[in-house]
Amino acid sequence: MSRPQDPHRPFLPFGNPFRNILPKGSYLSPKLLALLNTFEESLAERLKKLKPRDREDVLSLSWMRFAIESLCGIHTDIKMLITALELPVSDWDDKWIDVYFDNSVKLLDICNAFTSEISRLNQGHLFLQCVLHNLSGDSMNSVRALASLDGWRQHISSKNPRLENCFSIMDGLVKTLDLPKIKNSAKGKVLMRAMYGVKAVTVFVCSIFAAAFSGSAKKLIDLQVPDTCLWAEAFSGLQTFVNIEIRSIYLSGRVTVLKELEAVDASVKKLYPIVQNEVDPIEAEMLQNQRSVLGKSEEKLSHGLDLLSKEVDVFFKIVLTGRDALLGNLRIGGNASESVKTDKVGGLTVK
């Protein structure tokens, strides 16, 4: 993770990770090279599509949902590549299995933390619904409306302890962006290079979510990927654009960087003093106008959070089914079976 005092420093602690994967003079057959190029070109296209067209799209819930949707596609692509490589799990090096299982359990934990935070944010919906109800013409109750507005403020400003654990897990992912040395396996070299791309993009997207949910740009990660990757240029362009915009938002002093949440917060700030004052005919009209604005922004926030939560759940299931499939193959093949043991996810992992 980039250091607070030097947030723009690219992070590549172990030098070029492909030094041991594709050393100078290494040979890949035309078939393997075509498989690798197809995977990397597809990854580059996904990254290009993920780059926001406008600065205002950065950290909108719709863009964040698209980011997770892109991760789902990338993780599906790596499964297809593994199948196309025709590399039986029995031929996998123990180190590759260790990397895969360690990464997957970390991703499952991160998904759980993000789901927890999305759920916490969505619980604020109840406070806002009470505000809207208590400000309706038939049941006007400014005292209860103020209490609900205060409740919403306190709820949104509270911290989620599960995120702190998520941040430490992400630190671990970044520190393992180096790759094991691959010997005498051209297919293994292709597999590890592709898995590096998946991991780099996954860490980057997760760091964006961490920055959005934590209220701090310090959670952003700046990765430098080797120029030899066909997706390197698209990745660097996306990372630079998004990270600069998020840091700019926080430097401006805004409390939240989530666009829909910011819209609700702005509406609450305008509505609060109106509700506090005695309502005369002019203010009554202002009150109902602001109530309408709050209702629309609240609906958009709630809908966006629901869709984002569903997409994170889809990603969780993709990672989980990938683990289960590999575990099933390990049990059938018997390779490395002695090193398989129960872990905290409730399944199995290789240590």
Structure summarized in a few sentences:
By secondary structure, the protein is mainly α. The chain contains nine helices and two strands.
**Approximate shape:** elongated
Order of SSEs, N→C?
A: HHHHHHHHHEE
The total strand number stands at 2
The span between the termini is: 24 Å
Approximately how much helix is present in the residues?
55-70%
Q: Helices and strands: which structural class?
A: mainly alpha
- The portion of residues forming beta strands comes to under 5%
Alpha carbon gyration radius:
24 Å
Number of domains: 1
Helical stretch count? 9
Read across the widest sheet, the strand sequence of neighbours is: 1-2
Largest sheet: 2 strands, antiparallel
Query: What is the averaged pLDDT score?
Result: 83
Task: Extract low-pLDDT stretches.
Answer: 1-21, 335-351
Characterize the structure shown.
By secondary structure, this protein is mainly alpha-helical. It has one domain. Helix content is 68%, strand content 2%. The chain contains nine helices and two strands. It has a two-stranded antiparallel ribbon. β1 and β2 form a beta hairpin. It is found in: Membrane. It is a single-pass membrane protein. Keywords: Membrane, Transmembrane, Transmembrane helix. This is BPS1, chloroplastic-like.
